[in-house]
Amino acid sequence: MLYRSASDRLLDTVNIVLLVWIAGMMFFPFLYIFSVSFSSMRDYLEHDFLLWPKTWVTDAYQYILGNNRFVRSVFVSLFIAAAGTLLNLLFTTTMAYGLSRPFFGQRTMIFMVLFTFLFSPGIIPTYLIVKETGLIDSLWSLIIPVLISPWNMIVMRQFFRNIPEELTEAATMDGANPITVFTRVILPLSKPALATFGLFYAVAHWNSYFSGLLYINNPSNWPIQVLLRQIVIVNDNTALLEQQGFVEAPPAETIQMAAILLATVPILVVYPFLQKHFAKGVMLGSVKG
Question: Is 160 exposed, middle or buried (0-12, 13-18, 19+ CB in 10 A)?
Answer without folding.
Answer: buried
